[in-house]
């Protein structure tokens, strides 16, 4: 009994560490924060529907990182890289004033 309990504890510990490791890849590239100075300068929002339309009249409903020329995420991903925010991830639903409609 003692032995099976120890075996269970070892199994649980190894499962926990493998879960932690598998989550590491996405955690390596941080998400862009709206409070980031570049984000603030470009009116970046993690949700395009929250864009200040008075300040950014060029924003049109439907525009989002997912259909921006600069977005480099893979189809199906919830977020991806953008050269404007080097080393960070932007969400597909996001938007900033550097938006360029994907051709
Ligand atoms: Fe999103 Fe395009 Fe702005 Fe990058 S440049 S944050 S992909 S809208």
UniProtKB/TrEMBL annotation:
Signal sequence region: 1-27
Stored Pfam families: HIPIP
Keyword field: 4Fe-4S, Electron transport, Iron, Iron-sulfur, Metal-binding, Signal, Transport
Keyword Electron transport among record annotations: yes
Domain of life: Bacteria
Residues covered by the High potential iron-sulfur proteins family profile domain: 26-103
Family note: Belongs to the high-potential iron-sulfur protein (HiPIP) family.
Function as written in the Swiss-Prot or TrEMBL entry: Specific class of high-redox-potential 4Fe-4S ferredoxins. Functions in anaerobic electron transport in most purple and in some other photosynthetic bacteria and in at least one genus (Paracoccus) of halophilic, denitrifying bacteria.
Quaternary structure, from the entry: Homodimer.
Name of the protein in its database record: High-potential iron-sulfur protein
């Amino acid at each position: 009994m003692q032995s099976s309990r120890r075996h269970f504890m070892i199994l649980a510990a190894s499962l926990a560490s493998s879960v932690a490791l598998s989550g590491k890849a996405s955690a390596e590239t941080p998400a862009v924060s709206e409070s980031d100075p570049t984000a603030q300068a470009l009116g970046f929002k993690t949700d395009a529907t929250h864009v200040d339309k008075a300040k950014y009249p060029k924003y049109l409903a439907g525009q989002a990182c997912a259909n921006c020329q600069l977005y480099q995420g893979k189809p199906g991903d919830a977020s991806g890289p953008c050269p404007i925010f080097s080393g960070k991830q932007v969400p597909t639903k996001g938007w900033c004033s550097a938006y360029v409609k994907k051709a």
